[in-house]
Specification:
The complex is a heterodimer of chains A (about 1250) and B (about 160). Chain A has about 1250 residues and is an alpha+beta fold. Chain A is about 55% helix and about 10% strand. Chain A is extended and about 125 Å long. Helices cover about 50% and strands about 20% of the residues of chain B. Chain B has one domain: Beta-Lactamase (2-Layer Sandwich), CATH 3.30.450.60. Classes of the chains: A alpha+beta (about 1250), B alpha+beta (about 160).
Chain lengths: ~1250, ~160
Amino acid sequence: MALKIVKGSIDRMFDKNLQDLVRGIRNHKEDEAKYISTCIDEIKQELKQDNIAVKANAVCKLTYLQMLGYDVSWAAFNIVEVMSSSKFTYKRIGYLAASQCFHENTDVIMLTTNQIRKDLSSPNQYDTGVALTGLSCFVTPDLARDLANDIMTLMSHTKPYIRKKAVLIMYKVFLKYPESLRPAFPRLKEKLEDPDPGVQSAAVNVICELARRNPKNYLSLAPLFFKLMTSSTNNWVLIKIIKLFGALTPLEPRLGKKLIEPLTNLIHSTSAMSLLYECVNTVIAVLISLSSGMPNHSASIQLCVQKLRILIEDSDQNLKYLGLLAMSKILKTHPKSVQSHKDLILQCLDDKDESIRLRALDLLYGMVSKKNLMEIVKKLMIHVDKAEGTTYRDELLTKIIDICSQSNYQYITNFEWYISILVELTRLEGTRHGHLIASQMLDVAIRVKAIRVFAVAQMATLLDNAHLLTGNMQRNGICEVLYAAAWICGEFSEHLENPVQTLEAMLRPKVATLPGHIQAVYVQNAAKLFATILKNQEGNTDSTAAQETSQMMIDRLPLFVQSANLEVQERASCILQLVKYIQKLQQKDVEVAEEVSALFAGELNPVAPKAQKKVPVPEGLDLDAWINEPPSESESEDEQPKAIFTKEEPKHSRPRHTEVDEKELARRREARKQEQANNPFYIKASPSSQKVYQEAPGVEHIPVVQIDLSVPLKVPGLPMSDQYVKLEEERRQKERAEKKKKEKKKRKEKRSGRGKKHDSGPESEEDITPAHVVDIVTEEMPENALPSDDDDKDPNDPHKALDIDLDNLLETTARRPLADSEKLPVRSHRAAGAPKSPAEDGEAENATPQEPKKKSSKEKRDKKKDKERDRKRSKEEKKKKKHKREEKEEDLLGGQAEEAAVQSEETKEVEAQPSSTSAEVSDLDFWLSNAPVPSNTQEAATVAAAEADPAPEAPAGTAADSEPEEPKDTETEESKSSKHKKKKQKKEKEEKEKKKKKKHHHHHHHSDGGGEESVQNGTVEEEEPLPPMSNYCLLAENSYIKMVCDIQGNLQDGSQVVVSVIFENKSDSFLKSMEFNVLDSLNSKLQRPEGSGPHDGLTVPFQLPPGVSNEARFVFTVQSIVMPQKLKGTLTFIVKNEDSSTHEKLDFKLHFTCTSYLITTPCYSDAFAKLLESGDLKSSSVRLEGVNMPFHHLLARICFHHHFSVVERINSCASMYSRSIQGHHVCLLVKTSAQTVSIDAKCDEPTLLGNVLDEIKQTFSQC
Amino acid sequence: MIKAILIFNNHGKPRLSKFYEHYNEDTEQQIIRETFHLVSKRDENVCNFLEGGMLIGGSDYKLIYRHYATLYFVFCVDSSESELGILDLIQVFVETLDKCFENVCELDLIFHVDKVHNILAEMVMGGMVLETNMNEIITQVDAQNKMEKSETFIFQSTRQDR
């Protein structure tokens, strides 16, 4: 019987599965909570059972209850139990529950590590899949660390289903365990080209997420993504890639140029709106990132705007919304093109959808002009009246004020109108933005003098009707405007029509209900008003009026004296006593008005927010220098003040202060002693710097003023920079006032002007008076005041940790290979999971002992490379990067100790990362330079060289970028042969060492290309490192600027030569408006944009801040290339100092050598032989004496400086080949014996050949 | 990244909640409530995007939703997701549910929330889109259900033996 009951109850419990639970809950709508609590009790019972099925059922129900908001973390251990069931059904239930309620602080999670590992390696793919899915939700740093290696193995699983999940989860692993990023990255990259589209999509997804946060580290993947973009048909993948490009382009404008065309094609071809929209978005990003350098942008912008218009016009609200969103991005950089669609955007303001209206509002900001401002605002005011929710209404209000006040009220032609608008806005009920309106009122009234009469009248009305505003104290945000009204009426009381009435309004008992700070302003300004009234009334014969006013003050002020607000109370009692005294004097018939108004005499001028900063530091004043010797921290000054003074004495006699007379010094010393003696808290001797300012000779003129930045406060003086602005303002003010009178006549505007439509039609834009110039300091901000993005970044952002440089990882030469410490942790009994690359053990063993040394050199190089990049980016990034470097170094150093014990055998892997794709990475520059492979090798090199810092701090940094010189195919070929690779690595290592020593060179450029090829084709065993070389030669130089240039032929167009000029600013001034001009010859002409005359200069598309250099390219057209050419040219530029700017020019001579018409072209030995046999070539020869350099150096020089490639090399004899841009073949046979080099040459153009040989000869005579 | 996926009915009753970031139960409920509040007051023919505001994540996040009969499907995503792409994804999700449940209705979701979770797991993993191809999703879901069935069959037969 008992058994039966037990059994029955088990059955019952068991019967209640998830469906029963749900049904039960639905049937107990009244006492749901109670029902659920009984259910939870049952579940607790079930969980105590041994039967795993019962437990799983219970956990399943708990998952449901969790969704309803019940905390089920108490069952965490049971969930782990269910997860570890061998049955898939239960396992899935367990993992689902875990994914719903586990988190980093769930302590049982650490029990799951082994279970998860087991599931990950389960033969059943769905066990693995379920584990991966679950893990993706609750992965912790510990789990990530322990399982990273297992997951990485799964990335190469045979089943795509597992691969894609493993790839995707890696992102979560990276977030929790950033150290795993570097080791896992190569494989992740590999997955971008996985045959399965799902895996590919997952990899794209992960890299996009990574790159979004730290885009610069992923720039090198751009070529790969570009390939995917042009080949993939999966819209989802395409969207991701295109979005990624949007994030990358700001970092690399060349990428943008390359993208525009395929994106435009996609825009034209795709039918998927989502894809089209993202393309448009990225094109916009590209256009933003490109400076105005490219003229054909307008077409792209037009295309975007046009497509967006189609979206906005679509009946689908979603498209409309997105169209507006994208439009607002264009607005920032190309407002003109958006403005033409004003009609459409205004239309959207009427949309019933609030999201769309808000987006349209954003756009309006950029739409306004002097012409249409009133019209647009009028429309918005109608919306304000109609608006229902306060949020939208507040949004409208802020937008109206934003639009009107933008760029210093640029678009406001009639301030009376604006004041009316502001007054009208105060009628809004329940807005939060009373303060905003108030500050606008104050700003306009103070800064636009001509408007004061009108403003004061309006404000007086406002004060009179204050009860309307304060009617609802609950939402008294709007009463802030009374603050402004009271202040304006008081300060500019001379303009009041009926001051007594206003005074009366300000002293009404109701005022006492206002917030304290407003009452205080009321009281203070009542006093100002009182002064004005007295002044007016004393002129009259009747003195009773004045006395009445005093009496009114005396009657009303006590109310404020009793105020609980201290400020109000203090001001009121002060003023009350003053008035009482005045009354006494009045009764004695003494004239007081003059003296009373003297209390408030003087104009309050607006001070620009940054005025104080602008006060120039007088010459010879070093603010950072100690005025007195800093007291040593260790001693307490309280104990030995005397000693400090005796110590300071010599300091006072420093040259700068000698003029201060001894008496003064003594007096000051005395005073200070006194002060110190009186002050028990005296800690450090820090004499007031102000004193020194004033007393030091020659600096008396410094205005030492206390500038309070809030507007309505008295300012005892103005910084000098501001005074000019003020003068200017006054001048314009007059102008404006006159104009205004005319306008007024014309319009006969009502005082409440807004009711009428303001007809601004007849006025053309030019007619409109220039905007009132309001006091704003227009000087540029000091450089160090640039806003830094750093502030925006959340320090807790997990992605910060993922800011890891990945490029190096992928180089063949592995400048910073994975350190052992970076290996993913592997359980000790396990064999290493990662597949080994075909590295030779010997090499690894050789490499290991040298490791630390090598690393340090690598680090240095990395840093140098950083510097190059940094020039292109902001200073802030530099900081960040440095930081990053430091971190890296840390883990390098820190990791080395612990590494050895765990995985000594893995050391071998270190160097050998998969290298098949490496060429692409290092070839980013190459890829970006937009031309077919062979022709462009040299051009790529120049790009690289241009990027290398021409400034002395990083002279040796070019090697990294010089790799693009190698043609791709040879490189891959090479990497196949590990023997060669080894050699190359060794050589490069040596080069690095060498380079470190040679820092004194400027633009030297390493000829890896030439050197490499000689290794490849020849049989030379041991090569000495090559000295650094650069193709950039000095063009001209003066004290301001230095120009170096490199001249390259353009293979695509046989008549074009590209001259890359690096301009370096050597001065402390800003160089701008640079114009590059060349006197054309018959044969060679500078290509100028269409429409410009043959003698016009070309504007250099950038400006140069001090110490900065940048590169510009100029294209020349040449007709005949057989003769060298010299062209005379001039660079004109403006040197801008803080206070002056001068026009300067620099003459130069451009030397087009015949070499510059040659283009490195690889040639195979059989083709070469055929060419020689053909007999079409004329021959010539030259002998070089006393050439004292290794043969391979000699070859490298010829390759590098004269654009040849080695065809074959046998011992001390080599054949070389090059081609001119017009297709002339040039063949060389170079032989060397002792110090004599003989060059036999053949070419189908003898003049060209002769010149080339001469140039070669010259090259070697120079060294 | 997708931050959260919520399904609730016209009265705000949650039918599925999947948060890809941890919140405690109370916050989750609050988010569901507020999201419902935001979404439910919108007209039928307005756009499907809502700036999420303070709810989750802040200004970078958007709510993208679709309303089907009695149910709201809401995805909370950040700016790395394409808005229109997510709308399509919701469509795929619903169509997949429709295939798996054969004319899906709210009741299916009420009683089989675990199955909905399993389907979702094949589409979105850890906040990232895993698969957008409906056939592939259904294949995987079916295969797993088949496995489960074979296991339950054994299990049920043992139960009947008792």
